[in-house]
Design goal:
Length: 132
């Protein structure tokens, strides 16, 4: 009785494998060539979603949707960049777009109060009132 070989799927020839896309081209496509935003988004800037809207989430590009979903828990711009494995510049532009729509809240950083002497005086007064 002849022994038949088990059916094995044919191997994909190497020439039919699609080339991997360059991350630079992809980043350019995601941001439309933009590199800046109206918001000052430092690496330590905290981002959150003030009111989650699932309908909005469904309309966003996959990368923006991922940012929107992750920002439901307050986190920094750097954490979002690392967590999604996206370049920091791309994350800043996409977050700027979301912030312009009112989808995410950009929490002020210490840099925002850099020249506000009233805030600096309030901080100094609070420090003076601390017990020694």
């Amino acid at each position: 009785m002849p022994v038949s070989e088990p059916d094995t799927p044919p191997e994909t020839p190497p020439e039919t494998t699609l080339p991997r896309r360059s991350r630079r081209i992809r980043a350019y496509a995601l941001t439309g060539g933009r590199t800046g935003t109206r918001f000052q988004l430092l690496v330590e800037t905290l981002i959150s979603v003030p009111q989650y809207d699932p309908a909005l989430s469904d309309t966003l590009m996959p990368e923006s949707r991922s940012l929107y979903e992750r920002a439901r828990v307050r986190c920094s711009v750097a954490e979002l960049s690392v967590g999604l494995d996206l370049p920091l510049g791309v994350v800043r532009v996409l977050l700027g777009d979301l912030a312009a729509q009112g989808a995410v809240f950009v929490h002020p950083t210490a840099h925002a109060y850099h020249h506000d002497t009233n805030v600096l005086e309030r901080i100094l007064d609070g420090l003076k009132r601390l017990p020694a």
